[in-house]
Amino acid sequence: MVYLKSAEFHALQNAIKAARVLDDASKKPLPESGGKYRRLFELSEDPMWLIFNNKFEICNDAAVNVLGYESQEELASTHPSALSPPIQPDGIDSFTKAEQMMAAALEKGYHRFEWEHRKKNGEDFPVEVTLTSIPHEDGVGIYCVWRDISARKQVEAELLEAKADADDANLAKSHFLALVGHELRSPLNAVIGFSDFLHSGALGPLNDKQQNSVNCILQGGKLLLNLVSDLLDYAKLESDVLDINLETLDPSETIDTAISFIQKDAEENGVSIHWENTSQKAEQPSLLYAKGDKLRLLQSILNLLSNAVKYNDAGGNIWISLQEAPATASERNKLTISIKDDGYGIKAKDFAEIFEPFNRGGQKGGNIEGTGLGLNVAKRLLKEMGGDITLESTWGKGTTFYLTLEKAS
After folding, report:
1. CA 379 – CA 390 distance, rounded (Å)
2. In DSSP terms, which residues pair with 291 in a beta bridge?
3. SS3 of 24, please?
4. What percent of the chain is modeled with pLDDT above 70?
5. Looking at the whole model, is its pTM more than 0.70?
6. Domain count of the fold of the chain
7. Residue 116 lies in a domain
8. Cβ(232)–Cβ(182) under 8 Å?
């Protein structure tokens, strides 16, 4: 963009005017500075004009051509109101907005904005305008440069339309997943209920072969139900319809509940869980209260504990702790739940994508069941509660996940 001082304004103005009234017979050359500014103005591909006392003083050929006029004289003699539609796209009439834009340029010395121009044939089109005030002894002029942005606006409109189509498709997908999930849960609960009933021996004792078959049905049903639940939560999060009920809660109680749910699986896989709820032994209740949704926090902790069991070896360990986060600027007034295991670990190259949906931390194709949605859902649930989940891991030596929550005041 070009900025002109007062003396340069005179050089530009006088050079352009002088170029039009030169005596053809004398062919007197222009001063060097005047010729330079005349060429700059006349040969620019961007439309330009000078406004003085709220009227066009001079314009260049680019302005003439873009607006569809025959000559500079015709354009300069056209009333400014004919160069714009009566109302701009933001609903402000063109005269009022033009006054506002020029006033802003005069006040700040420079102003850029979008505008709707009208060609001689009546066609309206968007432009980006830059106004630069040029003070001199006779008053203040305004140097105006503008550029047709029709192509850019067309691309923006196409991008918005594509985004709207993608959002509609994503919403339809989420609704489909939710519908399928609900339709699957009822029969799955029935399968799990009846197989658990058989497993309990309520209908009579089962031989070893029958017991193994029932166990396979029961475990398969539970696995499918967990997968469906993950899909349902993912669909709800994608559709922004998942309810989060924030309240003051004691995270240690939620950890106790999660351990009670996962303990049997841990024992069956030979994994030991180490957690000491110090608040139960304290003379005063724990002061480590957090803001969160109790059910969603339980779901997130269970997900991480389940992974710590699945991605571990027999004889492995899981350590759980609850503490105040370090008093740094970013973590002040936060609580941290850490869940550490000495299992497989995660490769550094997989860190960036570990929380992406359907990512299984490099375990794709392995013999460990799962959709790869659990970590994504857990992290997004923590985000909805004002917290987050981060991790540290060494391949072959284990992983630590950190759940942060806002501390209750």
Report:
1. 8
2. 248
3. coil
4. 80
5. no
6. 3
7. yes
8. yes
